[in-house]
Amino acid sequence: MHNARVPGLSRRALIGTLAGLSATWLLPRDALGSRLSQTLVPGTAPTTLDQTIRIGATAQGSYRVLAAGPGERYIPRVDLTGVAPSPARIGQRRSLFYCGHFSDIHIIDAQSPGRLEPLIAFDHSLFGGAFRPHDPLTTHVGAAMVRSVADARFSPLTGAPLAAAFVTGDSADQLSELETRWYIQLLDGTPFVPNSGAPDVYEGVQAWSETYWAYHPDDPAGDWFGDYGFPQVPGMLEAAVTQTVDSGGLPSPWYTVYGNHDTLYMGTFAVPAALKQFAVGQHKYYDWLALGLGYVQGWAADITAMGRAWNAASTNIGALYGSRRVTPDPARKLLEQRAFMQAHFSTSTNPGPVGHGFTQENLASGRTYWSADVGPLMRVFGLNTCNQIAGPDGAVPEEQFEWLREGLAQAGRDGRLCFVLSHHNSLTLENDAQLATNPQRLVHAEELIALLASNSCVIAWLNGHTHNNTIIAHPRPDGTPGGFWEITTASCIDFPQQQQVLEVIDNRDGTLSIFTTVLDHASPTEWDGDLSATGLASLSRQLSANDWVESPTMRIGSPLDRNTELLLPAPFDLSRITDAAIEQAQAADQARIMAWESGWPT
């Protein structure tokens, strides 16, 4: 079902809107006018409504390939209304807001000496995230995922244009300045070669004979992954670090928040000075015991002058057992907390906004959370739930919690619909770590949920962290119909390597629907040996599906966590949102998309 162009603007207003947008984006007025006059038609880009990707047959050993599965239709969920939706809504609904949701992109510089890959040889189940066989392919997956969202720039339900995209943390994997830069370039559409150190050469554990615990694509015979049945893929490493990656960028503004991997090393630890030096240095470890003596000594016991002198001398002369020399690269330096915000001001103006949610006030004050009006209807609150001291899970400091309370109250008075963004979800907000010298009460999931559910303007809480597709209904605390939906998307690093688009719909019957549509990244379902950037993304998904320590299929989620229609009572009389306001916002989105399709104005 689609809805026609909303006939809300008067002819005079439409002429004025057309003139302004044509001038802003340097678009031919007649072509833009023709586009804006057309009826909205559902987008035809591939989504999981049409086809899913499932783990298929065994290829060799225990290694399995992927296969196409049937599409999944939208499943209505009435947890917050308690009554079956009216069939009449389908013929009368109007789109209020259509957006993308990214999380846990985990861009990796696999050649960095600051990585802790050998730890999987110590305990694979505990440190599985330290090394994955597809580590060098994350930028290729990221590019294919950005293309998938850009391809779905028109809603598969109503044809509404993409208004914004939100990134809920863990964009870089290991706190690296270079990883952060690459992720920003992927979303902006700035091409780059995902290599560090020596030009056109892969220097890392997947090419070294000492690393029996790593996947060696050129010849996996004798390593753990080869024993499992992983294929021989000659040239994968060279292809990964020599080809230009070009995502094409997003056609909509995008906004971001901190994840624990954007805050702490491995998303868990504070960063000692010794590790900062290793990250930009000339030695990379392949032995877990040597790694422990090198890094962990710097973390825990290297406080004497003699210890510091030995580490400095051994680094300079190369006397580091269990390591190899690599080409040093200052771009691999590890980011301080405020530098993550600062990095988002080095960005293209299109699609924008500069800062991507963070403002100059954030930089001046050091405050790491923000709010922004995105279009005429939505107010978005970007939280920082990451613990600054230790631990992967999070909480909300009381000062930030009170800021959110006041902001939601004002949004209610302003008649805004609200999204709340954070990295952590309601299952992972229990971290209590803090400095004794600067204690602050930390708010956990139960109290945050109560605040969100008591403000009817909040319709959704978008987050990530667990790498699973999950949707949870949070009812009002007083038991009356209503509440909000918590929507957790999967990750780009772990199977199924998916993200999503969401659309807010006014059903014109006193209810509101949020449609969630899961997207696979834009690469072939079955990898056919192609080592282009798109082929490497396809290969990465197949490799990620063969994680024998985790349970890849669990992360897909149930049908109730994927393509859904999430109903809730309208938080206020939605007729207050005029058709004219909707049409004007969609016209602006259409013009911006048209400018993106034309290569942006120059």
- Report the helical percentage: 25-40%
Category from helices, strands and their pairing:
alpha/beta
Q: How would you name the CATH homologous superfamily?
A: Metallo-dependent phosphatases
Distance between the termini: 38 Å
Q: What is the overall number of helices?
A: 17
Instruction: Classify the beta-strand content into a percent band.
Output: 15-25%
Domain module count: 1
Mean of pLDDT? 92
Q: What general form does the structure show?
A: globular
Largest sheet: 7 strands, mixed
> Which consecutive residue ranges, at least 5 long each, have pLDDT under 50?
1-6, 301-310, 312-319
Cα radius of gyration in angstroms: 24 Å
- Largest sheet strand order: 3-19-18-17-4-5-6
Annotation, overall tally of beta strands: 19
**CATH structural class:** Alpha Beta
Query: What is the CATH-assigned architecture?
Result: 4-Layer Sandwich
CATH topology: Purple Acid Phosphatase, chain A, domain 2
Written account of the structure:
With 602 residues, the chain is of the alpha/beta class. It has a single domain, classed as Metallo-dependent phosphatases (Purple Acid Phosphatase, chain A, domain 2), CATH 3.60.21.10. It is 29% helix and 17% strand. The chain has helices at residues 11-25, 29-36, 89-92, 119-122, 138-151, 177-188, 224-228, 236-242, 273-279, 288-300, 305-317, 337-343, 360-365, 398-414, 445-453, 533-544, 579-597; strands spanning 51-60, 63-70, 75-77, 94-102, 164-167, 254-256, 283-285, 323-325, 370-374, 378-382, 396-397, 417-421, 442-443, 458-463, 470-475, 483-488, 498-506, 511-520, 564-569. The strands form five sheets. It has a seven-stranded mixed sheet with strand order 3-19-18-17-4-5-6. A six-stranded mixed sheet has the order 9-10-12-14-16-15, covered by helices on one side. The chain has a two-stranded antiparallel sheet with strand order 1-2. β17 and β18 form a beta hairpin. α1 (11-25) crosses α2 (29-36). The chain starts with 10 loop residues before the first helix and ends in a 5-residue tail after the last helix. Residues 1-6, 301-310 and 312-319 have low confidence and may be disordered.
